[in-house]
Amino acid sequence: VNSILLSCLRSMDQVKGVLTLQGEALTQADINLKTAKSNQVMHFTFRDDKHWKLQQIQDARNHVNQALQLLSGRDESYHFKTGAEVNKLMDAVMLQLTRARNRLTTPAAMTLPELATSGLMKMFTPPMPGDVMVNFYINLSKLCLTVYQLHAMQPNTTKNFRPSGSSVLHNPGAMFELNNAKFEVSQVHKVECVVPWLNNTLVFFTISLQLCQQLKDKISVFSSFWNYRPF
Ligand SMILES: *[C@@H]1O[C@H](CO)[C@@H](O)[C@H](O)[C@H]1NC(C)=O
Ligand SMILES: *[C@@H]1O[C@H](CO)[C@@H](O)[C@H](O)[C@H]1NC(C)=O
Ligand SMILES: *[C@@H]1O[C@H](CO)[C@@H](O)[C@H](O)[C@H]1NC(C)=O
Description:
Blueprint: E1 5-11, E2 15-22, E3 25-34, E4 41-46, E5 52-53, H1 55-71, H2 83-105, H3 112-116, E6 124-125, E7 132-139, E8 142-152, E9 175-178, E10 181-194, H4 196-227
Antiparallel strand pairs: 1-2, 2-3, 3-4, 3-5, 4-6, 7-8, 8-10, 9-10
The chain binds 2-acetamido-2-deoxy-beta-D-glucopyranose (3 copies).
């Protein structure tokens, strides 16, 4: 997982912005939100002193490093003695590569209170108003930004309050309680942009896993010869 500077710009009616992804960290964010309520455009940036680490990329990189350590754990002159020994190494490497890939293809599900109290809400200047929440995640080769517009539910509301569970993406109508106040998601905006090096990374994971599998297949072909001893 390389460290490359990327700026992405996506424009939609409600959410526009520029994000800078440097390796695993979002180093800059410049977001314009148009709220349905006031039709005003609000402008937020990351505080100068803040970077937001994307846990998914960090985890993927850690798994790749573990795979590399497994591969470089032996001296260059080391000779594998059995096919089983190679298979065992390939299985361990493939496990790490699969985990790395899964981290990029499976964004974390979160509850709305978890989102509301996440450190991400403290990243912005000016601070996000209480009725707006944002989330960043990686989905395959895309960096996604979701913006939730909330409204406070009146204590005397006749609506049935049902808190929603964990989800990557919450729908309008989802409800949650925080500090004895009840909220409902009134609008959801999702914007996403392709990160080319993430796309390449996913392709490399697929190729690496295929190579490992091919090596295992070859060993299994040869071991059937080795096991066949006619004399
Ligand atoms: C992730 O990407 C897939 C494929 O483009 C899409 O079907 C899915 O809805 C996305 N999920 C989220 C949570 O963004
Ligand atoms: C709930 O109370 C608020 C003020 O406290 C009032 O404006 C609103 O009409 C009430 N709603 C219902 C459904 O009774
Ligand atoms: C993703 O990478 C593959 C292989 O490198 C390439 O063929 C494809 O066009 C890329 N897609 C995007 C959206 O960049």
